[in-house]
Write a structure and sequence with these properties.
The protein has 17 helices and 16 strands. By secondary structure, the protein is an alpha/beta fold. The chain folds into three domains: 73 residues; 167 residues; 192 residues, 3-Layer(aba) Sandwich (Rossmann fold). A seven-stranded mixed β-sheet has the order 12-11-10-13-14-16-15, sandwiched between helices. The chain starts with a strand and ends in a 6-residue tail after the last strand.
Length: 471
């Protein structure tokens, strides 16, 4: 089987990532041979891998190269699940920014630099951010500024300031601005008070003004919003390090309190008795023990209580939720308790992450990143069917495409949470009954088991997706 380059790996002439026979490789091209050797010889690779800051790799035979330009072929440790900045919580984006700055400062100390500062060079593995682009490091030219400065501001600083100082939901701008939120846009959206904060004044507002000034000068580097050759000369190592530390101070000064959203306190404010919650948790664990699943997606995970129940059985759990506060709280708990098998992410199930970028191949859709071994859809279906008017059959069809097995909870109309959804709208859902639910899901799943949740009218189901169906 031939090599197949990843859709996101095509812009860098130094090398690219590809798959061959299901294995993942990174090719180092001849043009980058000296830089790659300098990176290894500097000791920085060993330092970063030892600290779990950079994905480790092993060099394999050149026979596995994808093209004749190869001087080395690397087999990196595979990331279990690829996520994107527009799916991260505030804390995750902040930690990814601080990791990038830490790497740049460590690189400068060894005479190297990061060639770029893309947020897409970071993934979350084992509860921590991990840098995945081995070919981002090169020797620093004496006097050169940091080439990744503007990119860092647009990928990290501007989104973080908008999330912190305006509205956390503005992180969604990263989904439409894959190259980062433009400096001029960020500057216009920020409140006037940010002009009084030195870090934000310099790195966002004055930076945006300088970019516009250079762009007004016409073609060439200046026409692209970059400084002229004369402006670029003479950045000392101390000044380069000072820039990194100034950016770190700006990032560390930003915070966001995860509160004020509709479902932030749902876990503590619902109609479950202790017995009901325990019954549901035990049923989930029992169902999972019979599946031998390696991966699970918890859809509507809130702060992750049932994700943690699943983690007792499944090595890797992705905890999706639409609520920024819930995802942030979940991530903070992952960090505080050093949890390694849970990845909280933002997801609107009614508008899941699509395929994005050039030819729709740079960033994968949620569906392309599946199917997972098992889905948890607990207290979710009523939000989709009643809250968003989604037919149960369509809900079942989508779930069958993204999961091989399904643990799902049916919540009847008599439940207080469904009555809450129907409080201000007409009941136009005659098929939303247990019988209607089962009929809709039988078109896409085989129902294996159904057990009642103690001290409630809810039912928990275990289902298996039907094979070879056009859903």
């Amino acid at each position: 089987m031939g090599a197949e380059a990843l859709g996101a790996s095509y812009r860098d002439p130094s090398g690219f990532v590809y798959t061959r026979d299901g294995a993942l490789y990174r090719q180092v091209n001849r043009v980058f041979e000296g830089h790659y050797k300098a990176f290894l010889d500097s000791g920085l690779y060993a330092e970063l891998v030892e600290g779990r800051l950079l994905v480790p790799h092993r060099e394999v035979s050149l026979d596995l190269a994808a093209s004749p330009e190869a001087v080395a072929v690397l087999e990196p440790e595979r990331v279990p699940f690829i996520s994107y900045p527009y799916e991260w919580s505030f804390g995750q984006l902040r930690d990814a920014a601080l990791l990038t700055l830490d790497l740049q400062e460590r690189a400068l100390a060894r005479g190297l630099t990061l060639r770029d500062a893309s947020a897409y060079n970071v993934q979350f593995v084992g509860g921590r951010p991990l840098f995945i682009d081995t070919l981002s490091f090169e020797p620093r030219e004496p006097g050169a500024p940091w080439a990744g400065y503007r990119q860092f501001c647009e990928h990290f600083l501007v989104p973080l300031v908008l999330m912190s100082r305006v509205d956390v939901r503005l992180s969604a701008l990263l989904r439409s601005h894959l190259e980062g939120i433009p400096l001029d846009l960020g500057s216009r959206l920020l409140p006037r008070g940010t002009w009084l904060r030195p870090g934000l004044l310099f790195h966002v507002h004055l930076h945006a003004m300088a970019q516009r000034r250079y762009a007004d000068r016409g073609s060439g580097a200046e026409g692209r919003g970059e400084p002229s050759a004369a402006t670029r000369r003479g950045v000392s190592p101390a000044a380069a390090t000072g820039l990194v530390r100034s950016l770190r101070g700006a990032v560390q000064s930003l915070d966001w309190t995860p509160a004020g959203t509709e479902w932030a306190d749902y876990t503590a404010d619902n109609n479950y008795s202790n017995a009901a919650a325990d019954s549901k948790r035990q049923a989930v664990i029992e169902f999972l023990r019979g599946l031998e699943a390696r991966t699970a997606w918890d859809l509507g995970a809130n702060t992750g209580e049932y994700s943690r129940a699943a983690r007792q059985v499944v090595p890797s759990v992705i905890a999706f939720d639409i609520d920024p506060a819930a995802v942030e709280r979940n991530y903070r708990r992952v960090k505080t308790e050093n949890e390694t098998g849970i990845l909280p992410l933002l997801l609107d199930l009614t508008n899941p992450s699509p395929a994005l970028g050039w030819a729709h191949r740079e960033r994968q859709s949620l569906e392309e990143r599946g199917p997972t071994d098992v889905l948890l859809a607990l207290a979710v279906v009523h939000h989709l069917a009643i809250g968003h008017n989604l037919p149960l059959e369509r809900v079942a069809g989508f779930l069958a495409r993204v999961g091989r097995s399904l643990i799902i909870e049916f919540v009847p109309k008599s439940d207080s949470q469904v009555r809450r959804l129907l409080r201000d709208r007409a009941d136009i859902f005659p098929d939303y009954t247990r019988e209607g639910f089962e009929a809709a899901f039988r078109g896409h799943f085989r129902i294996e088991r159904a057990v009642p949740v103690a001290e409630s009218e809810r039912t928990l189901y275990l289902m298996t997706a039907l094979p070879w169906q056009d859903t």
